[in-house]
Amino acid sequence: MLLNQLQQAQCANPFGQLGLLPVEEGSGYVLRVWQPRATKVTAVALKGKRAPVELECVDDEGLFEATLPKLTKPFAYKLAIEAGDHQYEIVDPYQIHHQAMYHVHHMYQDVADAYDHMGAQFQTAEVCDVEIEGVRFALYAPNAQSVSVVGDFNGWDGRVHPMQKLDNGCWGLFIPGLQTGEKYKYEMKDPLGNRLPHKADPYGYHADQYPSHASILFDHSKYQWNDTDWQRNNLDDKRFRPMSIYEVHLGSWRRVIEEDGTERSLTYRELVDELIPYVKDLAYTHVELMPVSEHPFDGSWGYQPVGMFAPTSRFGTPDDFKYFVDQCHQNGIGVIIDWVPAHFPDDSHGLARFDGTHLYEYSDPRKGWHPDWNSCIYDFGRDHVRQFLVANALFWLDHFHVDGLRVDAVASMLYLDYSRKDGEWIPNVDGGNQNYEAISLLRWCNEEVYKRFPHAMTIAEESTAFPGVSRPTFSGGLGFGFKWNMGWMHDSLSYMEKDPAYRKYHHGEMTFSMIYAYDENFILPLSHDEVVHGKNSLLYKMPGDEWQQAANLRCYTAFMWGHPGKKLNFMGNEIAQGAEWNHSASLQWHLLEFPRHQGQQNLTRALNKLYQSENALFELDVSGEGFEWISHEDAEYSTMAFVRKAKSTQDQVVVVSNFTPVPRDGYRLGVNEPGTYQVILNTDKEEFWGSGYDVADTIEAEAIEWHGREQSVSINLPPLATIFLKRVG
Question: One Gene Ontology cellular component annotation (predicted)?
């Protein structure tokens, strides 16, 4: 029976059969070793002068035994093995069962324990006063009939290292002598004994690329961080700070042309030298990285992740990614990563039907299959799935020091009928369409993040009017720190795409956002989704000739920077890229040889610097006290003007936009205070490739009542331009 189980890699209790075991009846011990392909096995004590013990070959398949009738207590040993012409030594893993089990049994005491106890952990085990270095493997697969660790170290032979099944659905094994960089997977039999495809480690820290998709042993304890000052100085509330985010796809931001003419992406360490100085020069406060979790398909942009605990090895090792984050922090740049708990692909090496059952996904396709992305949906109601996801969120904040998680596709999690027709979804217990399990998970996740990492933030990409997305859980909200303002993005782009002659009929599309601007803590996104799949680049969304397109984009960009809400801009937008974004090609950096593209880049830099220097533009982003319309009803001229106010000072900044190509000379604006007003930014300046229309640098307020105010100024509004004014003196 035992031999058959070992031969078929179906042994679920190897520690009951292998290793140094007390004789059931009588005294002494029996030493039993399973080594397929071995012809001779000798046990050699690791400590003391005990004589070597040559084991008898019980079966030519690889089962060896030795009876030690006089042995009174176990001893630590290694195995000297001969297999044909090969000779090697290993420390028998089946003498180290206590160390392999303890923490796995207790993994659920704290959700954060999961990523420090599950998967492959480098540890030191102690056997009979001998310390043994190795890796403890722990896997949750409660429905598997058997599990083995396979890898470079055993010829990918599932017979060699069967794991021990524990009483909590986990499997454990400590394998001595393994080194960082060795590849491994798990070989499993489903509940009926059928062999499954080799599975990557759900908690794997590092992964190989196609075709193996193997997990790679990695030790997180080696990297030495140097971002203490950043961690200490970023504990304040992000709602009251400037936040200008540069969204980046690492694989296509800039590519290197090799000698043979092929292109490759920059590595994490090359990005330190290239991307960080660029972001710093343009004065962005944060970078947001499209998903860096390991994913099998480049074309998914990372939104079909498999290795949730592994930064993609496309660009380097986990320590290389740590170095990138560390250097961002040392240069005053925060790091946000996209996090995808909404779905996962059904690749055979991944989580789908992991142990032969629907372990991670809903079993009913009406809940467990995503029609938009042809991928699986996590079963948000199962404890081990919830712990897996929350632990993963904490893991990135803990081991990689990231500053925030932007959670993708939140709306698809919240609604059971998301992108489904009648009859294609299952109502909740109350007959409604809200996924209570997902809502509960998101609340728990946000609570854990803010409790353990108060400097961090969570951001929801949520495209509906679900209430309280960025409100605390104790008041009934989901607990996110911020929410993308998808409504503003959709309405404002719809307006900008229209010919200026017709914008007056759609004036409300630009003003409507202020009706709900303080319902949530908003980020204004111009993300990657707006410049792909035939939607056109931002530049070519704009109407008019070459100059008007660039002017429209400058006017719109500055309007966005003046509008309440934090800012997010996708790479390429800042240089007015003409082509849609292509994930497999570099940005069109050669365009910076032309003035109109330099102009957009110069404007982006100027806006970011102005934004951070003027408290009025960010301190009251989430409060109506920080905003006041001057004019929102001038649809005929397609102009609008408003005031942004500071909290810590009396400063006010006036923002006025002319969304037509017609200059407005002597345009009168009501202002709140008398005095001298200075133009602190004008998108029509020649340095931005504007027309240089005659606009006075300073303007004196006059005691002429206008827009319901006792004071007003008269200003020339350039064509398709936004101007920022500030009272000085």
Answer: cytosol
CA distance 291 to 534: 22
**pLDDT tens sequence across 643-693:** 999 999 999 999 999 999 999 999 999 999 999 999 999 999 999 999 999
Q: Choose among 545, 550, 539, 556: nearest CA to 503.
A: 556
- Residues with Cβ within 8 Å of 316's Cβ and at least 6 positions away in sequence, in order, are 267, 268, 269
Whether 329 contacts 335, CB under 8 Å: yes
Q: Strands, E, within 374-489: which ranges?
A: 375-376, 404-407, 457-460, 482-484
**What is the distance between the alpha carbons of residues 438 and 368, in angstroms, rounded to a whole number?**
12
Strand-pair partners of 195: 189
CA distance 341 to 393: 9
432 and 439 Cβ atoms separated by less than 8 Å = no
Q: Are the beta carbons of 79 and 132 closer than 8 angstroms?
A: no
Q: Which residues of 188-222 are buried (b: 16+ CB within 10 A; e: fewer)?
A: bbbeeeebbebbbbbbbbbbbeeeebbbbbbbbee
CA distance 139 to 201: 8
Distance (Å, whole) CA 355 – CA 12: 14
Structure token digits, residue 145: 């009939």
Task: Report the alpha-carbon distance of residue 640 to residue 211 in Å, rounded.
Answer: 56
Backbone angles phi, psi at 159, to 5 degrees: -80, -20
Please list, in sequence order, all residues whose beta carbon lies within 8 angstroms of the beta carbon of residue 455, skipping any fewer than 6 positions away.
Answer: 231, 234, 235, 403
Q: What is d(CA 459, CA 174) in angstroms, rounded to the nearest whole number?
A: 39
Predicted model pTM:
0.96
Write out the two tokens for 368: 């467990």
Q: What is the pLDDT of residues 441-463, one digit of tens each?
A: 999 999 999 999 999 999 999 99
Distance between CA atoms of residues 623 and 615, nearest Å: 14
Which tokens in the block code for residue 474?
């104790």
Parallel, antiparallel or unpaired: strands 263-265 and 215-216? unpaired
Give the β-pairing of 293-294 and 307-311.
Answer: antiparallel
Active site residues: 408, 461
Within 10 A of 481 (CB to CB), how many other CB atoms are there? Answer: 20
Taking the C-alpha atoms of residue 691 and residue 473, their distance in angstroms, rounded to an integer, is 50
223 is written with which tokens? Answer: 């990297």
Please name the residues in contact with 709: beta carbons below 8 A apart, sequence gap of 6 or more.
Answer: 630, 670, 671, 672
Q: Which two tokens stand for residue 177?
A: 């002598």
